[in-house]
# Entry
Amino acid sequence: MSNLEPKVLDQDEAAVACCSPMVREPLGEAAAVDLAKMFKALSDPVRLRLLSLIASHEGGEACVCDLTGPFDVSQPTISHHLKVLREAGLVGSERRGTWVYYWVLPAALAKLSALLQAPTGESG
Amino acid sequence: MSNLEPKVLDQDEAAVACCSPMVREPLGEAAAVDLAKMFKALSDPVRLRLLSLIASHEGGEACVCDLTGPFDVSQPTISHHLKVLREAGLVGSERRGTWVYYWVLPAALAKLSALLQAPTGESG
DNA sequence: TACTTGTTTCGACGACTGTCGATACAGGTG
DNA sequence: CACCTGTATCGACAGTCGTCGAAACAAGTA
# Structure
């Protein structure tokens, strides 16, 4: 098909897609609510470090016992932050015997990354 | 100088660079604090829509008068959110006569986008 | 069973956030 | 000057968030 006529994207379509750069088309209200939850999960320094600690850990996953050491906050607080990351869909978790392991869900990060992609070469 | 010897990245350097994917190396505490502020600015649906509305607006910039219409919140609230975006370094603004114009700072978005880039092909 | 270790949940507290109406400020017009 | 429009700031309020200690739950060991 030709693209002679300009494509018209309505808000709903942007909301469903929700993965294309936000600089190209306005975000729908529903998509914004959904994405805001993910960004909120990233809006705390401890959670940001937790995420990168998990992602960069050997094997791509880390036990909670690996994650409590590097922080000044209590272990229940770490557990709380991990729960926030999990409920935001940014990490997965599984119990194996005594320990609970967490890993990053790459698709979620990629989704946010794509959304923020800006045309730096053109307008910057 | 040659770069024959392998480069060693310590935490401090990661904190300064703060633009490489967080999945490769743990984020430093200072970098995490800095980045969390930006993500916090993105953690509200109204601000997310404001940002995409500004970015996708004709000419890459939008007057505040273009931004108050699409929302159910009051004008002072929009002004507040724009201030948050500006103080987070995500948008720039300038007064021209009666109107105030806002535009997206692409480098900031690119910085966050790069940080979130995940190796989807390898581990996902 | 009792005990130990790893992890989550609970309840509480202070701090921060999003929202509003009222008000102040900036700039154009008559 | 007075007046109007566009935008930002102020002060207040309800709701949310990050944190803690205490307690509960999960799983292994003796």
